[in-house]
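[User] Once you have settled down, look closely at the record that follows, and write a paragraph about the fold.
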Amino acid sequence: MKRTIPIAEFPLAHTKEGIISITHIEEPYGEGSKPVVSIGISINGEKPDWKAHIPYENIDDVISALQAAKEKYKKA
């Protein structure tokens, strides 16, 4: 049975009401499917406009890629 557990929520930079939400989802694709972390982006502070489901086995790779992007492209 699909179950969603909120983990964190914080403002989306450069928006007035935008939110980034992080949730744990159990059985996201039906009975027996493995849990994922969902990253939701809401522009108006309501239901997410975009979502990405990341299997727990891929989290370290995603974090590494995000860190690399930040180091290479973030301007001071």
User: Anything to note?
Assistant: The helical segments are 59-73. Residues 59-73 form the longest helix (15 residues). Strands lie at 3-11, 19-26, 36-42, 50-55.
